[in-house]
Amino acid sequence: MKKVIYLIILIGLITFSGCWDYREINEFSIALGLGIDKGEEKGYYISAELADIQGEGSEAELIPIVTTRHGETIFDGIQNMVTRSGQNLFWSHAMIVIVSHELAREGMTPIIDWILREGSVRSDIFVLVSLEDSAFDVMKIKSPIYNAISSHLAYTLNSHTFSPKFIPKKLWELKQELSEPGIAATLPTVRVVQDGDTKTTEIWGTAVFKKDKMIGWLDGTESFFFSMIRPVPVSGVLAQTITLEGTTGHITYELAQKKSRYIATIRDGKPHIEVEIKLEVGLADFEDVSPDIKKPEIRELLEHYLETYIHQEVLSLITKVQQEFKSDIFEFGATIHRKHPKIWRELESNWGEEFSKLDVLVTIDAVLTSSGLLSKSISLRD
Which of 218, 242, 277 is the last residue of a domain? Predict the structure, then answer.
């Protein structure tokens, strides 16, 4: 952790050295994360996690401080924070922006506009939606591993392939989704959970948007299958209950590789989408069943069980999004736009309704490639 602290200090010193604006480093507070909530009657509550570097040399320690101020606008709230502390906020090291779900339902445009106008905020900053009453409820949680909760959340977002219950989203990606035709935006969601005697944060689920407004939510399990559909890396494990040779038990697969693609066709003047998902999996664990994976028929049966299960979950998710949200988070419209631009021009103005009626075919091809287990369970003597 001290190496990280040194890196932050070093980059800050390099940035502020020389004649850059003729200001000293002690005139600034380094912001690590930002939370934005709706004001009680109007305006915004702005929360910032600041890095208070205490000590020198090898004794240096980062102490995170979360401070909150109200403002008529986001910029006004930031300025009130500066006025109270007497230090400008330096945003180049900010890693996350958390927006309350209440504010996300009203629209993300004012927030994105402020970030884009604030020249020191990087475009690769992560954006999340809080499932708690406020973004501050997340910002105030103490990280059990990292000094700063912003660092903890950023690390989790960067490691999403190991537990794909969400899809991380950076500011530039959100801006792109909001501006490009044929795709609706999504953001990962964060909540506070009890972990023994303490509380911690968990990034779990997906906020669904129509234009810039949040209109719904997918839980962590649904988000896993959302990751299956979208062209993003996925690893982790997938558990399934099966019946094998008359015995019901549990089997766990480890996802080694996943590839997905869309095929857009036009039949009778109407668009159709085929979703192809190809998986390579390993057999990680099983309970109450003893599959002999050396037998080709057993391997084929396990692959069939897995393909059937994933097909049902993926198709169920697509149907839910079509019927409940009518918001194309899968990028089907963008695929039609690229492959059949003339047809897209006829559909674009009413794509929400067209998407809800879109015929989608799902095909799953799962291959059991390896196993870290014995080919057959050990038989115990009587």
Answer: 218
SS3 258: strand
Stretch 110-118: mean pLDDT: 87
Give the DSSP H/E element, type plus range, for residue 298.
Answer: helix 296-320
Same-domain status, 5 and 136: yes
Burial track 247-263 (b if 16+ CB lie within 10 A, e otherwise): eeeebebbbeebebebe
What amino acid is encoded at 362 in this protein?
Answer: V
Ramachandran class of 90: left when φ > 0, alpha when ψ lies in -120 to 50, beta otherwise: beta
d(CA 255, CA 277): 13
DSSP 25-57: GGGEEEEEEEEEEE-SSSSEEEEEEEEEEES-G
DSSP-based three-state secondary structure for 342: helix
- What helix, strand, coil percent values describe the chain, rounded to 5? 35, 35, 25
Query: Left if phi > 0, otherwise alpha if psi is -120 to 50, otherwise beta: which for 29?
Result: beta
Q: Who contacts 326 (Cβ-Cβ below 8 Å, separation ≥6)?
A: 210, 352, 353, 355, 356
* Cβ(118)–Cβ(91) below 8 Å: yes
Per DSSP, the chain holds a count of helices (H) and strands (E) of: 12, 13
Query: Are residues 119 and 188 both part of a single domain?
Result: yes
Cβ contact 62:53 at 8 Å: yes
Q: How far apart are CA 205 and CA 222, in angstroms?
A: 8
Edge-first strand listing for the sheet containing 237-244: 237-244, 247-267, 270-287, 359-371
Name the β-bridge partners of 68. Answer: 47
pTM for this prediction: 0.87
Query: Cα separation of 362 and 371, whole Å?
Result: 27
Q: How many residues does the chain have?
A: 382
Domain count of the chain? 2
Q: What is the pLDDT of residues 228-243, one digit of tens each?
A: 999 888 888 888 888 8
Average pLDDT over residues 358-376: 79
Residue 122 lies in a domain: yes
Q: What are phi and psi of 283, to 5 degrees?
A: -85, 110
pLDDT of residue 85: 62
